[in-house]
Design goal:
The protein is mostly beta strands. The protein is built from two helices and twelve strands; from the N terminus they run ββββββββαββαββ.
Length: 286
């Protein structure tokens, strides 16, 4: 069950190791987050020596801007240290570090539900899943919390169908909240498979990101956390006044709605009927 991500980063420093078939390049990289703060990453790539083998990762150097996809792993329990990534593919972007764009960490995770839906606080609900990083012949399993806003009815009506050991696929955004990496759920679907063995791993920490800062730049995106920052106790209920975000004006019970795929099949475990009554409109969260 993989844990994949994609992002845009600035290479801060690079070290090299040699092996029989690969040049191993390790880097400390920096992300400019959408709130214009910086976050450090530890990046590892395996570059084949053979000229006949595909080279999906370029030979990056300090001050390069790299767009990449890769695998990641977290410590068993927070607080989490620096995010460790094994790069699978990427390319260099011809821009200067002073013009580094903001970047979210987009993630694709499949795993098994360990803890069913729980209240995080007044704004968010969360589920805890176990997922896997594959590294050669080894696998490392780790836990991660995935959360969504209570007023996000599209995710809620899927989440309430989950049971312990349900196999699910989540796409979303990896964020750091109080020294804990979590996934803000953008979509959720059920899979059909069986649970595997549980293991754990660990990672180091770094503060290189404190060396970088950027001026405030407006973004057209609005994350779940940004919406949560604007909410008050009076507008936590979906039927209350609408948020100042893009909405879909089609009723949820419209069979021709563009969200027909939201009624994905639940897992094979029998579940009680969904008695949740959605509101007449829904919000779209990214």
């Amino acid at each position: 069950m993989p844990a994949k991500l994609s992002l845009l980063c600035l290479i801060n420093s690079v070290s090299k190791k040699d092996s029989t078939n690969y040049i191993i390049r390790e880097a400390i990289a920096i992300i400019r987050k959408e709130d214009n703060t910086s976050m450090s990453l530890k990046l590892t790539s395996f570059i084949p020596k053979s000229s006949s083998a595909p080279r999906w990762i370029p030979l990056f150097e300090p001050d390069n801007i790299l767009r990449l996809t890769g695998k990641f792993i977290l410590e068993e329990e927070p607080p989490h240290g620096i995010l460790q990534i094994t790069a699978n593919a990427g390319d260099l972007i011809e821009i200067s570090k002073d013009n580094l764009p903001t970047s979210s960490i987009s993630v694709f995770i499949t795993g098994f539900v360990v803890d069913q839906v729980q209240n995080d606080d007044n704004l968010f609900k969360s589920i805890k899943i176990i997922t896997t990083k594959f590294a050669g012949n080894n696998t490392n399993k780790f836990y991660i919390k995935c959360r969504y806003l209570k007023i996000d009815e599209r995710i809620e009506k899927k989440a309430i169908k989950m049971r312990k050991n349900s196999s699910i696929m989540i796409t979303g955004e990896l964020i750091l909240v109080n020294s804990e990496f979590k996934v803000e759920i953008q979509d959720l679907n059920f899979l059909s498979t069986s649970i595997g063995n549980i293991e754990s791993s660990s990672t180091p920490s770094s503060s290189t990101s404190s060396l970088y800062s950027w001026p405030a730049t407006p973004s057209s995106r609005m994350s779940a956390q940004e919406i949560a920052n604007t909410l008050t106790p009076q507008n936590l209920i979906p039927n209350n006044q609408p948020l100042n975000i893009v909405t879909n004006n089609d009723p949820i019970n419209n069979e021709n709605s563009s969200h027909d795929d939201d009624d994905d099949a639940a897992p094979s475990i029998q579940t009680p009927p969904n008695t949740h009554t959605p509101s007449s409109t829904r919000s779209s969260f990214r």
